[in-house]
Amino acid sequence: MLAHVEAASVPAGSLPRTRHLGDRIGDGLLYGLTALASILGLLVVLAIVWRVADGAWPAIKIFKAGFLWDNQWNVNLNQFGARDLIIGTVVTSFGAMILAAPLSIAIGLFLSELAPPAVRAPVGTLIDMLAAVPSVVIGLWGIYVLAPFNANHTAPLIHSVLGWIPIFGGDPHTESTVFTAIVVLTIMTIPITSSICRELFMGVPSELEEGSIGLGATRWEMVKTVVVPSVRGGVVAAVILGLGRALGEAIAVTQVIGNFIPLKHTIFAPGDTAASRLANQYQGASTNTQIAALIYLALVLLVITFLTNYAAQRVVKRFEFQRTGGA
Amino acid sequence: MDPNAISLKATGRGRRRLLANRVAEGSAVLAAVLAIAVLAVVIWSVGSRGIGAINLDFFIKGPSSDFFGGKGGIAPALVGSLMLVGVATLIALPMGVLTAIFVSEFAPVQVSQQIRLWLDVLNGFPSIVIGIFVFTLAVKTKVPILGIGHHQSAIAGGFALAVIMLPLVARSTMEVLRLVPNQLREASYALGVSKWQTVIRVVLPTSFGGILTGTTLAIARAAGETAPLLFTCAIAGQIVDWNPTHSVQSIPLTILNDSESADPALHQQAWAAAFVLILFVLVTSLTARLLLEHSRKKLGLQQ
């Protein structure tokens, strides 16, 4: 009996390993494999930046930073400058944001504060489905349905009221226009921005909302004074995330915008954007300089979208952290 | 009637406030209705224009080479899209799931936050830039890392789509793994089961449905992507081609090319192909979302 106890009370350090060799190998293998996959994923991000910068290098050497403010895209003379493409990208994206931001915030409020629970889920799903429609289908619809509709109805209406402002001037009956591209981008960004807004608004503590209602505020006053102010930064980030999507959208824009530079002073005229030019010239690229110039353009686009997305993600993360307490 | 009775009807300032409230609520409803109306109009436009060209030939024949607009089909594009999405899924699914397992089971909080952030950054990259990235990697390169030789191929196009899918699969899998109750893991450890066995026998089976639906959503997204294919898998023959080292046709590019053609018969083809694509994308994402909701509820109840 005594001998038995003695045998059991061996010093802790010399306890036999209970873990099977197979388990130790298995744990190590799974850890290694999953870590490797994660590292490869991050390497893809780095590789994208490196390969695009590397591919653009010949063009960077020739055109230097002047590429950003020169305005010509002459394949025959091998002269490339992206000024109007960058302006076109900024104009279409910001135009889309001006339309999409209020609409998305309104949809977010509808889904989080206003809609009865039975309506909430199906409406939310339908709006998410709008995000699932492929951009090439939106573009096809843009060419044959939206563009004629804009040229015959929307644009002349805006022109007749605001035509005295130069950007709404020109001939409103043009079909391929910057304006149609703005509408297409608005449609494509609304689902993204509105679903983030909805999440943000739902995260506002209901005690605050009930307190406001209890003090006699109407629902609109509650939204105006409590809901929106408490997540203002997050809403800005949601809009910027939508902007990031709009900046990089190539296909739908190239289908409706008319692919024309130099830009006119009106949105009722053909134009072009950086992403659209990339999509448009994929088959035509012949000389090495032209290919390098296109990749340079891609690099510019990459830097712009990276900065916007990174900034927006940081802000959104802060709100997630605030809401969930960092869980 | 008692002349001293207090009227509860709002007047003056109160009325203005109620009116403002009514207007604001109305605008919110209107915005939601507008978004849904756009979706309805898009689906209706595509459906009504596309359905006329859809018949059996449309699915089993190649594009018509007849100059006078004989009715052709999209068989090569269907096969091509299938192959592209297949290649993309083969790459993105294991990579995404392994990354998600690392983040949710192994990595310290700081590291997993960083990985999440960079996956979001990758998700934010314009898809056309990803196409150009693969172009520099596989098509126009001195060292053919990916492509078999220096040309476009289904492998290159599929790889580009995989880069689009990776953050989607990884993020959705992370969400599901996070829902797996910790009690299940702890119960498994308490029985003396090792970590890798726990992950493979407990965590993954519990979240299998969620991973599957997340992947389906990513596939639906990849199937409709056009931009990554422009530089990597765009110039292709008009016949059905099962060789992944060849450049193949795809549904999105067929729509793009046909929509910009001058031939009205091809416009009809574009609408029909768009109808097939939109039907596939909407039906798969809708079912996947419903299933996801279902599995989320199931996991939520266990907690």
In summary, what is this structure?
By secondary structure, chain A is an all-alpha fold. Chain A contains twelve helices and two strands.
Mean pLDDT of chain A: 87
Number of domains of chain B: 2
Within the CATH hierarchy, at the fold level, what is the topology of the largest domain in chain B? Answer: MetI-like fold
Low-confidence stretches of chain B: 144-148
Query: What is the helix tally of chain B?
Result: 11
Which architecture of the largest domain in chain A does the CATH hierarchy give at level 2?
Orthogonal Bundle
If you consult CATH, what is the topology of the largest domain in chain A? MetI-like fold
Q: Number of folding domains of chain A?
A: 2
Number of strands of chain A: 2
Structural class of chain A: mainly alpha
Q: Kindly state the number of beta strands of chain B.
A: 0
Structural commentary:
- The complex is a heterodimer of chains A (327) and B (303).
- Chain A folds into two domains: 19-62; 64-324, MetI-like fold, CATH 1.10.3720.10.
- A two-stranded antiparallel sheet of chain A has the order 1-2.
- Chain A has 327 residues and is mainly alpha-helical.
- Chain A is built from twelve helices and two strands, in the order ααββαααααααααα.
- In chain A, a hairpin with a 4-residue loop joins strand 1 and strand 2 (79-80).
- Chain B has 303 residues and is mostly helical.
- Chain B folds into two domains: 12-53; 60-302, Orthogonal Bundle (MetI-like fold).
- In chain B, 73% of the residues lie in helices and 0% in strands.
- Chain B has helices at residues 12-50, 56-60, 75-106, 109-124, 127-139, 154-179, 182-190, 195-224, 227-230, 251-259, 264-302.
